[in-house]
Amino acid sequence: MDVVNIQEKFDLFQEQWSPKVIGELNGQQVLLAKVQGEFVFHKHDHEDELFMVMKGQLKLELRDRTVVINPGEFFTVPRGVEHKPVAEEETHLLLFEPLSTKHTGDVQADITKETYERI
Hints:
CATH architecture: Sandwich
Helix content: under 10%
CATH class: Mainly Beta
Number of strands: 8
Radius of gyration: 13 Å
Number of domains: 1
Structural class: mainly beta
Strand content: over 45%
């Protein structure tokens, strides 16, 4: 059991849209991601997904509206809701999701990661 310094973990990688595992609890994984540009519309049929912005700004495009998340804020996408993350500038995210959550949910894309690196 060690204290995890989130900023030190962010400093360990540069890849975009490639979440890194920094912890686990109760069947959940704690992930960090750096993102910029647009992801793909996708959904997770069985899992909710929490996005917390640490730096930058994230827009989550939903089919009926766009949610804007600023540093220190989070938004939970309910299971089954299609969403597309968009970041106009490099944005740092802290994510909480079940271990079973697939990177791009119900969509297979060039950007899809099958496994996440633990840092």
